[in-house]
């Protein structure tokens, strides 16, 4: 791509926009060294320190980078982005090995900092500080999964290896996986923890094949103390990737390393999953996380209210627990909505205020309280996609566009915040949701036929 002369301070403008979209940890790890090398109306060339950062940014932060460039620079709507890096030095093995913490003669007194540094360098998520065992409310629906996760964090590769957690969206699987990471890395022992989504594994495997770097890929995954993979059901229909994961699983298991997996289905119900993988997933413990019962929902609501520093009457919490029975995210969203509404109208939270905040009527529950589940169902049927696609990491147009429509409807029809909506779509951040909402809103003003289609989906969601 031939580039024109760079405008004044494009790098500074780009970094200002990036900081508004990612956490400080993400910025310091992946974005701090980026420079805007050249700009023209048709494209932007960015330069980074090495090929690994270039590959990671292209695979997992392409959308964020485009949003930041779009905000920082005046470009055409279909501008291209090129991320360049210095050519790696040739090595005898034909590939550049992944950087690992340097060995030392004597272990550090407290390797916690090294554990966290390894995690930040090699995992594709930033841990939520609230997702700890102390903040997890256990009940009959998740007690086994909770106990097993604590045992795994205390004694990796002990009684439960692998640990396989399964259940519907919003029931705490990610919370437990991140709690394991927190506790394992703070154990006082050297612990290289790798936590990724299944789609990351698939994408990096495909890239490794294309780039001739399978040795580097295998080194990355088979030389850790603990491997945690979210949404392992996304391996369905990917035969060659399943074969690779089978060998990775065997290498880690035989080396006495801990494996933790999560899925929306138990192993035997994942479509086209090979029998040899199913059998290995069952070697340890398969624990279901079901929808919480009334008592657990009430305890969760008490915890969420306390976390916000709010005093909410027991009768209000009981009312919410009785009427919101879908998942934990809906419960958290209800507390946020009720408290925010009460502050807005300068009233104390009571039953009447709670009903008005959540859109309840005397005849029953408003669709807006559980609307996001309905929205997902309606959008999936209309566009011919699966809920797991909308909640996954795929960025193809056939998946990304329905996902943006669903986010727009969720923002319009539910009481959920941008962060809470993002949580229903694979843990995306608020800036991604806001970008989707703005994009769909603009298109509805420009395209009459599309506006009619969105209105039709909205009416279907509301049962009209």
Question: How would you describe this protein?
Answer:
The chain is α/β, with parallel strands linked by helices and 464 residues long. It has four domains: 10-84, GMP Synthetase, Chain A, domain 3 (2-Layer Sandwich), CATH 3.30.300.180; 112-288, P-loop containing nucleotide triphosphate hydrolases (Rossmann fold, 3-Layer(aba) Sandwich); 294-358, Helicase, Ruva Protein, domain 3 (Orthogonal Bundle); 371-461, DnaA protein, C-terminal DNA-binding domain (Chromosomal Replication Initiator Protein Dnaa, Chain: A, Orthogonal Bundle), CATH 1.10.1750.10. Helix content is 52%, strand content 9%. The chain is built from 21 helices and eight strands. Strands 5-6-7-4-8 form a five-stranded parallel sheet, with helices on both faces. Strands 1-2-3 form a three-stranded mixed sheet. Helix 10 links the parallel strand 6 (226-230) and strand 7. Helix 12 packs across helix 14 (328-345). The longest helix is centred in the last third of the chain and has 18 residues, at 328-345. It is globular, with a radius of gyration of 23 Å. 39% of the residues are buried. Residues 1-6, 88-98 and 362-370 have low confidence and may be disordered.
